[in-house]
Structure formats: C-alpha cells, structure tokens
Amino acid sequence: MINMFLTKKEQEMCDGEAGETIRKSMDILVALGDIYGASKLVDITSAQVSGVSYKTIGDAGLEYLEDLARDGSGKATINASLNPPGTDLDNWEKLGFPEYFAIKQNQIVDAYADLGISKTCTCTPYLVGNVPRFRDHVSWSESSAVAYVNSVIGARTNREGGPAALAAAIVGKTPLYGFHLEENRKANLIVDVTTELSGADFGALGYIIGKVVGSGVPYFKLNNVPNNNDLKTLGAALASSGSVALYHVEDVTPEADIANKHDVEDIMFISDKEIQETRQNLTTTDKQADLICLGCPHASLEEIKQVANIVKGKTIKNKLWICTSVSVKATADRMGFTEIIESAGGNIVCDTCMVVAPIEEMGFEVIGVNSAKAANYVPSMCGLDVVYNDVENLIQFE
Ligand code: F3S
Q1: Which residues make Cβ contacts (< 8 Å) with residue 389, sequence separation at least 6?
Q2: Residue with CA closest to ligand 1 atom 5
Q3: Which residue, 30, 364, 374, 383, is the most exposed by fewest CB within 10 angstroms?
Q4: Are residues 300 and 275 in the same domain?
Q5: Are 365 and 331 contained in the same domain?
Q6: Does a structural domain hold residue 3?
Q7: Cα of 11 to ligand 1 centre, how many Å?
Q8: Residue 202 in domain
Q9: Is the CB of 296 inside a 6 Å radius of any atom of ligand 1?
Q10: pLDDT mean values, one per 10 residues, the chain (398 residues)
C-alpha cells in the first residue's frame, strides 16, 4: 500500500501505463518516500547521478542499466548529469588505464546516455552547466556536490543514492522530505573558528566537524572569507568524515540568515592547533608521493591556473594528475594552462578521479592530495598511502 499522496497521473505511472522504465522508477521513488514519511512527490529541475564507475557498480550495475536502457520507455526529463566514471573516457589509453576496465566503463556511460543522462561526467556539475537556482528542488547524489548545491547555491536535495537520482531524473520528481523542507535546514552546531584558514586547512576543518556532527547541519563562523573553491573543499570533507548534506557559513552562504543560529546550544571552538594536528593525521606515510592527484572535487579553472603558475618553466619529479571535467579542460586548453602543465610533465585528467579510478592497478603506491575527502577515501577504497598537504608543498621539481 502506498502512503504518500499521488496525483492521478503519478498513479498511472506507478501502474505501468507509461512504460516499464517509468514504472520501475516510480517504484523506487514511492518506496523511498514512504520510508521517510514524504507527503507527496515534488517537481525537480536537475539531477546528478552517481554509481558510474565500473569499480563501484561492476557487471551487475552495468547489466541493470543496459536492461533499463533497452526497454526504451523512459528517459531523463530534466537537466541530468553523471558523476565521475573510473577512466578518462577519451584518453584512457594514453594515461595508462587498464583496457578491460575502460571498455566496461564506456559501456556504462553509454547506457546512461541512452537513458538521457548527459555525458558531462563530474562531481562539480555546478561549474559546467548543471546549475540549479536558489530554492529549486533537485535530486543529486554525489556527496560533495550535494553539500555544495544545498549550502552554496541554496537548492534543495537529500543525499540520494544513484538509483534514486536516476529514477528522479526520468520521472522529473522526488519525494518531499528531509532537506527539501525548510524546517530541516536549520543549524544544530555552531563552529567558531579562531584562526585564519587557507588551502588544505579548509579540508582539515571539514574533516574535524564532519566526524562530530554526523548528518547534522553545522554553522561556521570563519575568521576570513572563503572563496568557492574553499567551500567545495570544506563541503567535500564534511560529507566524507560525516554525512553532512548542508552547512552554513555566516555572511557567506545564502541561507545563513535563516539557520536560526540563536537557538543553537552546541558550540565548538576550532583553533590553529586542531587544524595542524588534523592535517598531520591525514597523512599516512613518511614516503614521498609518486602521484600527486589534485581536483577532489573536480578542479575549477582557477585551481588549474594556480597549478600552471606553480609549475611554469619547471620539470615535475613526481607524476601529476589534475582531475576535472572535459568542459573545464577545454577552457584550460584555450588559456594555455594545459600546455604549461604538460610541458612540466603533468596531466589534466578528465572525467575520473583518484578515488573511483583503479589507481591501485596502475603501479602507484603513495598519492599526494590536497583534499581531505581524497585523503579519507584513498587508503580505504584504493589501499594506498596518502600525503596530505597544500599544492605548492606536494609538487616536487627536478
Ligand atoms: Fe569528486 Fe572523486 Fe573527490 S567524485 S569529490 S573527485 S572522490
């Protein structure tokens, strides 16, 4: 029995009158809504679908997607893009990705494209055309992207699983509960940061607070104004050590004024000491990194420019990947940043990232990262050591 209210048209979709793909998608959305006590479905303007890397979904996932696509009765009805796959889809061979993996990976992305999901493969879709408006309801699934779209853009999403975001993309609706409701967007922990932060400090801060707050909503009082790159780093870390989907930053993020900070009783002070200790603890080895992997979440043009300025005219000793989307790389190509980075021995790697790529099969042992999310996941998901530091300290020159 379905508990939530459905319109006549939605009920017909549930009954299979619009085809099998839509019926299966409605099944997922209605089950989710009933579990979380949603009153109804709400229209969405955007979806971001995870569950793309062959490393995480394997043959079973590929089969499921191909079955759904073969049916042909349902395709995405709204702006929908994909999370990173496990390879650079175009340059996998040149970059040394295993062939068996690349073949499967392309089949997965093709199946999603048959379902109407754009081959824009990135965890920063808000930089490249999948940009909701303030207060739009959306269905996004990659955790750092969820934190960004909720907190920095002020759109509304829960942390969706890949199948739920795909179902929402096809139906164009999602169940109305959780962070879609104003009352659940209030803060429940004040974080007073008593030191100025820069670079990898933001990831360290997010890592500390994510562990404390879990799925809560932290409200930050910062000593200096973060830029958008700092906010994406902060949100990614919050969402990886905890399961934060929404945070507020005083005088910075759009809903900070309605976060009800005056009602919050829990307050935590973070000083430089905690930030420095956490930075050290995120490093798991004394060895030097053999691969520096930047772009977690996927790099913006400004971040690529910063690296180009650091490496210009020099030769990099360790390997360097900067992970980003094809669209950001296209602009980096035009600006001459790609040429500078490649001349120094680095690569701009599209689509994929250090966590969802099979880097453990590619001969690397120690990965240098400036992202606390990557530092958290590379040891557990890839079985490799990490060095956590700022970009300028990670890259070694001949
Ligand atoms: Fe994106 Fe991969 Fe990091 S999906 S947030 S670059 S772990």
Answers
A1: 200, 279, 283, 368, 370
A2: 297
A3: 383
A4: no
A5: yes
A6: no
A7: 37
A8: yes
A9: yes
A10: 91 95 96 96 98 97 95 93 98 96 98 97 97 98 98 98 97 98 96 98 98 97 97 98 98 92 92 98 96 98 98 97 98 98 98 94 95 97 96 95
